[in-house]
């Protein structure tokens, strides 16, 4: 049951594996299974986000109830895309990996793949960059979670 919980948490925007890995470790799931399950859970929605999010957001941006949120998501994606392009130049793949992989607020797979979709980056390169970024974030979160839990003497 714990595997399913962390798998589902890792699919949630903003939470992703940045919340799922520490949760799994705190629940007693071993580090490597938690890492693997959370990578899969975080990566699973990304092809769909890349292929459909931009169209869905454009469709809904002028709707009465959802428009404000959809416009926020479009602006977040465009802003992230501009930052990536300005910073990276020709190294957009590496910039996307680092954007997704370094776990700071406002970054992650959902925002990164949305930016890639808005920038019209190649689908395969975007998914590969997303996978690499998710793996990097997973390593960072696993190492930091183990350290914090050891300090707190949990587990």
Automatic annotation (TrEMBL):
<keyword id="KW-0812">Transmembrane</keyword>
<dbReference type="Pfam" id="PF06695">
    <property type="entry name" value="Sm_multidrug_ex"/>
</dbReference>
<feature type="transmembrane region" description="Helical">
    <location>
        <begin position="30"/>
        <end position="53"/>
    </location>
</feature>
<protein>
    <recommendedName>
        <fullName>Small multidrug export protein</fullName>
    </recommendedName>
</protein>
<keyword id="KW-1133">Transmembrane helix</keyword>
<dbReference type="InterPro" id="IPR009577">
    <property type="entry name" value="Sm_multidrug_ex"/>
</dbReference>
<feature type="transmembrane region" description="Helical">
    <location>
        <begin position="92"/>
        <end position="120"/>
    </location>
</feature>
<keyword id="KW-0472">Membrane</keyword>
<feature type="transmembrane region" description="Helical">
    <location>
        <begin position="126"/>
        <end position="152"/>
    </location>
</feature>
């Amino acid at each position: 049951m714990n595997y399913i919980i962390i798998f589902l948490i890792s699919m949630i925007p903003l939470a992703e594996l940045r919340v799922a890995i520490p949760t799994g470790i705190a629940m007693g799931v071993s580090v490597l299974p938690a890492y693997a399950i959370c990578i899969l859970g975080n990566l699973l929605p990304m092809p769909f986000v890349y292929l459909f999010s931009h169209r869905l957001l454009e469709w809904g941006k002028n709707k009465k109830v959802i428009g404000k949120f959809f416009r926020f998501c479009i602006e977040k994606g465009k802003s992230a895309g501009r930052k990536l392009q300005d910073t990276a130049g020709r190294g957009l793949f590496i910039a996307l990996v680092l954007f997704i992989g370094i776990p700071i607020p406002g970054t992650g797979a959902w925002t990164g793949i949305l930016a890639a979709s808005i920038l019209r980056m190649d689908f395969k390169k975007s998914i590969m960059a997303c996978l690499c970024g998710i793996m990097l974030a997973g390593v960072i979160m696993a190492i930091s979670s183990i350290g914090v839990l050891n300090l707190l003497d949990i587990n």
